[in-house]
Amino acid sequence: MRRIFWILFFSCSAAGLILSFLPPGSWPWWDSSWILLFFVATYAGMVESEGLSATRMTAGIVLVSMAVLLGLGALTGWPVGPLRFTEHSGLRLGGAIPLALPLFAFALLTASGQAAAAAMPGSGRTGLAIGTAVAFLVTIANGTDFLVSRRIWWLWNPWGDGHAPGRIIFSFLVLGAAAAILSFAYPVHTSMRRTRWNAAVIAWLSINLLFLAARLATLLP
Question: Is the pTM of this model over 0.70?
Fold first, then answer.
């Protein structure tokens, strides 16, 4: 079943390449489908390797922490910059509370951690936490054009008025620190020492390819 979800996710990601050349907000069904498939595939992969109880605990910690962090941005504009959800937002709890971003954050953090472990198989927990934060931030920075400009179901402005560089740096430092700290909630991936490449690592690469394509599309006439 896990393989089926990964195949569907990769297929959805490939279809998302077309979105870079379409008007913003095209295919409103794509966002929810893509994020939900990404979440389910990474969650199922963790269940298979770590067990259900450990996966539930890790997912709970990450989802709640990210929801609080993003919720503060939506309510107060601090610490990650103003975050606003539009009427096009999907995956809502009770029709009011957005779920898409916390689910995406968990799946991306999981994939980032496994990508860091694949790149640094001999690193300790601290080194892996730093690598996870770097992989997580690289993806977020790479995806700002696609996530903010190409899609219209949420708006994020870490720059504030005048595109203040200090505010940008602070927003990304907060996200990086959160990713590094939350990486310690994951069980130690001893299996990653033996199997360096897996579906989550390929997912991290494919997501960054999707985001890079959106950036290149903006340069076309």
Answer: yes
